[in-house]
Each structure stands twice: as structure tokens, then as C-alpha cells.
Amino acid sequence: GVPKSLRPLEEPSVMKGVTSMMRKTKVSKPYGSWPSKLTSEVVTAGALRLGGMQFGVGGRPLWLEGRPQEGGRNVLVADGTDLTPKDMNVRTRVHEYGGGAWKVLPDLGLALFTDFKTQILYKQSLATTDLTPLTPEVENAELRFADFELDATRNRVVCVMEDHRGDGKEPVNSLAAVDLDGGRAEPVTIAAGSDFYASPVLSRDGTKLAYVSWEHPAMPWDITSIFVVELGEDGLPSSEPKLVAGGPGKEEAPQQPQFCPDGRLIYISDEGTGWWNLFELEAEGRGRSICPMPGCEFGGPPWMLGTRTYEVLDDDKILCSYSSADKPTKTLAYLKISTGALEEVPIPYGSFGGVQVAPDGRLGALGGSTTKPVEIAMQNESGDWTAVKKSSSLSLEEDTLSLAQVIKYPSKNGRHSYMFFYPPKNADFEGPGDGELPPLLVKTHGGPTAATSASFSPMIQYWTSRGFAVADVNYGGSTGYGREYRELLKGAWGIVDVEDAAAAAQYLADQGMVDRNRLAIDGGSAGGYTTLACLAFTDVFTAGCSLYGVASLEALAGDTHKFESRYLDYLVGPYPETKQIYKDRAPIENLEKFSAPLMLFQGLEDKIVPPNQAQMMFDICLEKKIPAALEMFEGEQHGFRKEENIRRCLDGEYNFYSQVFEFEAAGLPAGFVPVNISNLNN
Fold first, then answer.
1. CA angle at 392 for the pair 54 and 12, rounded to the nearest 5°
2. What is the 8-class DSSP label of residue 185?
3. If you write DSSP's letter for every residue of 25-76 in order, what string do you get?
4. Pairing relation of β-strands 143-151 and 156-163?
5. DSSP letter string over 361-406?
6. What is the DSSP letter of 131?
7. CA-based angle 175:179:184, to the nearest 5?
């Protein structure tokens, strides 16, 4: 059975009837003004970003903790003990987004990791914690490493290398081999010539290397290739790489190759149906869908390196996970390769990632649910799941928790879109009952080729416990709904996402669920762009908040890093050929269409959305007498990592809406400095 502590709160219980009889009378108070125990301090206190787990020697769990209270530093932890020295931060800058910055090699008793400041790759003894640098010291962290695959017979790892040392316009990406002896030799190139590489994986005997590559202007969920290359005894390619899946000109994005012990290749592809399903490469070189399941996705968009959503266990068995378009939770299952039969594995988490298998067959995972924060968990000997590390000590009583409702709603041109709707909820307070409806906050996720989920989010509960309704939208172009839905944003960013975000607010207002005069919208990064575009190109919203949002598409096209430098070709059109479209869809070029009050939060070290975009937006709002506020944070990049800044954004946005919508803010911290909104009296 499931341990009591891990049971989802929505399970029926005998106590429900009893507690409802004892339930105290709620106090009526205007929506938005409900005092809440969920202060920004409670929401962020000790909150960790858990970055997955791996099994070490003897099945001992190791995991990555991102600590906002240490400026966002990432620390490798073994069974509760820090391995990473205090002056280091486990994070790679490959593709700027990173991922795959560490790997445990239990057979060698080692952990590998990249240090953020220097980007040097280290090996660390799991027994003594001694550190040895493996890669050359290079000025300005110009040599970067990620996504490691052990080549045991040659005592080295094969990984993705990104080299910024040349004087070319872009860094050079390749697959390279790094010796584990600590000699710090220049890494040996194994594959080069493509714009991007990911997921290097070796056959058990070390004679074959499979990997993913792709070329500008494609993104890794758009068009990719899987190649297999033979390696000689010296570890260098002894043949030309052979294309085995996907390829230029095909509308396919295969990902995550893995070898069976007998040398057969397994991978995930959206070939044929447009849904990422599992495939086996057959002897004659054709891919066979092992278990065709249109409507389900076994993989996601590879924004980060090192993500794995399945594990090959033996020649006929895979442990896999999948999501389905009509269900808010994921499924974990064993898959028989020969028959395609799926056997569900019970797991007390609706959303989970990085499932790992210990030598004795026990499973570990990063688990989340709709009712409590994410945690690292593993099975005990009897198969029950127990939490080994929680991302937060926060736990909410059932009468405080707003649970997501999945709503499929109509949008423009006969399309449908999806949202998770959270009604206002507080154990002690309710609306005034005089016909007043709650204000709505529409949330637009980043990416934009990504998705939001129904996993517990203290940031959403912060709003619902104060009397806001929240709509977390998976607009057209989001992942998890197949290629056709994902490609709704092809050439249509700033149109489809905007229509769907606005349609969500209008739908809820038409249903009498929210106050149509108090419709707010927020988002970060690409979601910040959708927020700004909604304020520029629709008149649905009465306030908005952009966190490090894209304001100028041209600036983004000319000023971003290699990984995303051609992403806008897909989302908008090739630049400069379609320059006019870039202008037409840029919020910063259409400020005459703005009228709603705007809040801007921005990091001063952001390389992806430069701070001058936020400053320009604010300056033009001042000129046009639009109510606006801008707060900049030193030492923050794209996405805020410091606890005090995360708290300031949350409280600041709430305070901003309280001023604009004229309600009394409740429960702001002592000494809180109100947001200074210019032109508010206009």
C-alpha cells in the first residue's frame, strides 16, 4: 500500500463527513483581501529546486538541490550530506539553459559535475569527496560540458562540448571524449559538423555510439536526426555516421536513443502519428513503433540536456512514463518490447520525472502531485514509496487547498485550448456573497514550446488563498498534445497564444466564474511576451505583469544565444525577410495600443532578454501616461534564483493589483515597500 504520508489529499476519507459538520463558519471579505497564512516567506521558505536523483554505490540516493537562500546555488547531495564544495555551483552553460550537468558513476565510485563559474568538469570521489579537475582551464569559462556517457573500457566519458574560444559568430558544438585520469588533456572530438548535439549513448560493448543532432533553424522538438557511428579500439569513429531516424526534410523529432544489452537501438519519435512514442530500430534499418499510442506522449520538448523519460532494463523490458492529452497526471509503466504490452506501475505522484532504477530493481524519482510540493522519493524493499527529500516543508490542509480543474475551452477559428482552473479557496474566508465575483489571474507559461501542469504550486496557492481565481493556460503551441497542436504556433507566436490566453479569460467571465472588470495576466520570459502582447493586441485584460518578458522580437532575433538564435524563424518567420511581421507583433512597437496598467520585473544580468527591453517599455509607458512600474534586480539572470527577489516579485505583483483594482492587500511582510506605480492617477 501507499504510505499514509504520500496519499493524495483528494482520496475519499471517512473523516470528510465528520470534518464538514465541525467546519467553522467562514468570514465574508472582498475577494483579493483575504488574509492568508501563505505569505511569500512561507511560500519560499527553505524551498528548494530539486533537480532529479540518481543511485550511487549500493543504491544510495544522490540528488541535486537548487537553494534560493544561497543565491540559487546547485548542490549535489548524497543521502543528506553535501558533496559540492561551498564555493562551487553544479550547473552547465551549454545552450545557456544547461541540463545534464552531473552524473553518478557508481561502478567507479565517482560523481561528475560541471562548476558554473569556471565550467570545468570535475570528478569527485563518493567515498572521500576528493575533487579532480578533468578539463583544461580556459579563460572566461569558454569550454563547456554536459550530458555525460561513461565509456568504461576506455576510462573516459563522451559528452556534449560547447567551445566559445574561436572568433566565429557562434560557439562550436560537438561530441567529445574527456579522459577520467585527471591529465586535463584537450578533449578528443568524436562527432562534429552539426549545429547541435545531444544524448550521446554507447552500446554495452563500447563499439557503437548513438546520438541526436540538429541544424539551424530547427529546434530539438522540430526536426532532429539520430545517428549511429562505429568506434574503433582507439575510441575514434571507424565509419561514417549512419542516419537511423529522423533527418533533414522530415517533420520528425526523434530523441533519447538508448541501446538494449544485445545492441538493438530504442528511441522516442513522433514519426507517423505526430505523438512522441517509443520505437525500436529493426535489423533492416526501419523504425518500428513498439506500442503505438496516439494521444499519449512518452517524451517532451528537450529544452534541457540530459533528460530521460524511459530506461531500457533488459532486451525485452523498458520502464517508461507517458502523459495523455485528456488526463492531468502522468503514468509510469513497464513496456514489453516484443509484444508492446504495458503494465502500469503504481506511483503516488501525478507528475514525476527522472525515474531511476537501483541495482536491486527499486525505483527512485522526482515526484510531484496536485496536493503537495515536489520531493525526491524511492521505493523501499516492499515496494512502498517514501520521501527522502522534500522541496518544501509546506503542507496545506484540504480546506485551504485549491485543486486544479481541467477545462477544455473554445478559442478563435473553431480551435479549442486547455487550462487548469483554480478557484479561490481559504479555510477562514469567503467572498461577500453580494454578487461580487473574484478577480482572475491568467498565467502564461514560458517556452513557448513547453507546458504547464497541475502539479502543486505554492505560487498559485498564494493567489487563490487571497481570493483570486487562477487560470494556468496551455495555449496552442504547448507540448503534451501532439505535433499538430505544438505547431499551432508555427509562424503564429503573438497570435495563437494571445487568442487562447484572452479566450480563457473571456470564457471564465462568460460562465460567471470571475469578474470581467478585474482580469489580470502574468508570465515570465516567453510567457511575459504573451502577457505584453495580450495587453497590446486585445482589450480583454485590465492589468498585467511581465517577468523578464520579451518586448522586442527584433532585439531577441539579433541578441540571443546560439540555441535559440533561429527559434524565431519557426515562431515568427525568417529575419530580416519578414521584418515587418516582427514589428507588427512586438509589444514595444505597438505601445499606442496599450492602455492597461503594467508591472515589469527584470534581472540586470539577463542574456536572453536584455534589461534594456524592460527599460524601453517602461519609458514609453511614462511618456504615454500609462500606469506602469519597473523593478530591476542586480545579480539576477533569466529567471530569478534569489529568495528575497522571488518574494519581492510575488508580493510586489499582489500589491500592484491591489492598487490598480482598489482592494485592500492582506498579509504583506513587515517593512514592505509598496510598488511605486507611475501615472496611477491617470
1. 95
2. P
3. PPEE--TT----S--HHHHHTT--EEEEEEE-GGG-EEEEEEEGGGTTEEEE
4. antiparallel
5. S-EEEEEE-SSS--EEEEE-TTS-EEEEEES------TTTPPPPEE
6. E
7. 105
Residue type for position 621:
C
CA dist 657 and 387 (Å) reads: 38
| Cα separation values, 528 from 102, 323, 471, 563, Å | 30, 26, 15, 20
Query: Can you name the residues that pair with 245 across neighbouring β-strands?
Result: 226
d(CA 500, CA 158): 43
- How far CA 390 is from CA of 184, 360, 362, in Å, comes to 37, 24, 19
Q: Is 414 exposed, middle or buried (0-12, 13-18, 19+ CB in 10 A)?
A: exposed
- For residue 599, what are the β-bridge partners? 545, 629
Residue pair 259/312 in contact by the 8 Å Cβ criterion: yes
CA–CA distance, 627 with 184 (Å, rounded to integer): 56
Q: What is the overall mean pLDDT for the chain?
A: 93
Cα distance between residue 153 and residue 173, in whole Å = 25
State the residue for C-alpha cell 530539486.
Answer: 50
DSSP letter string over 133-168? Answer: E-S---GGG-EEEEEEEEEGGGTEEEEEEEE--SSS
pLDDT of residue 259 exceeding 60, the answer is: yes
- List, for residues 144-161, the tens digit of each pLDDT value: 999 999 999 999 999 999
pLDDT value at 504 more than 80 = yes
Convert 619-674 into a string of H (helix), E (strand) and C (coil).
HHHHHHCCCEEEEEECCCECECCCHHHHHHHHHHHHHHHHHHHCCCCCCCCCCCCC
| CA dihedral sign of residues 234, 235, 241, 242 | positive
CB 450 within 8 A of CB 502: no
Find all residues with CB under 8 Å of 339, minimum gap 6, and list them. none
State the sign of the Cα–Cα–Cα–Cα dihedral 423, 426, 432, 438. negative
Where does 203-294 show beta strands of DSSP type E? 208-214, 225-230, 242-246, 255-259, 265-269, 277-281, 287-289
The three grid cell numbers given for residue 201, joined into one nine-digit string: 549513448
Do 455 and 351 contact (CB within 8 A), yes or no? yes
User: Side by side, which strands form the sheet with 81-82?
Assistant: 49-55, 61-67, 73-78, 81-82
* 531-589 pLDDT per residue, tens: 999 999 999 999 999 999 999 898 888 777 899 999 999 999 999 999 999 999 999 89
pLDDT in tens, 486-498: 999 999 999 999 9
What is the per-residue burial (b if ≥16 Cβ within 10 Å, else e) of 312-337?
bbeeeebbbbbbbbeebbbbbbebeb
The DSSP element (H or E) to which 537 belongs, if any, is helix 526-537
Residue type, 575: Y
Between the alpha carbon of residue 608 and those of residues 116, 142, 159, 563, the distances in Å are 17, 18, 25, 11
Kindly state the cell numbers that stand for 46.
527553505
Task: Give yes or no for a contact between 216 and 207, defined as CB atoms under 8 angstroms apart.
Answer: no
Other Cβ atoms closer than 10 A to 379:
18
> Distance between CA 522 and CA 468 in Å, rounded?
13
Q: Grid coordinates standing for 103?
A: 552524473
Residues 58-66: contacts with CB under 8 Å, at least 24 apart = 58/106, 58/359, 59/358, 59/359, 59/360, 59/362, 61/364, 61/376, 61/378, 61/388, 62/104, 62/111, 62/126, 63/366, 63/376, 63/388, 63/389, 64/90, 64/102, 65/389, 66/641
Which is it for strands 102-105 and 110-114: parallel, antiparallel or unpaired?
antiparallel
Assess contact for 145 and 92: CB atoms under 8 A.
yes
Ramachandran assignment for 589, one of left (phi > 0), alpha (psi -120 to 50 degrees), beta (any other): alpha
Q: Amino acid identity, residue 425?
A: K
Write the CA distances from 512 to 227, 245, 435, 623, integer angstroms. 54, 50, 10, 37
Residue 1 has pLDDT above 90, yes or no: no
For residue 448, say if its preceding peptide bond is cis, omega within 30 degrees of 0.
yes
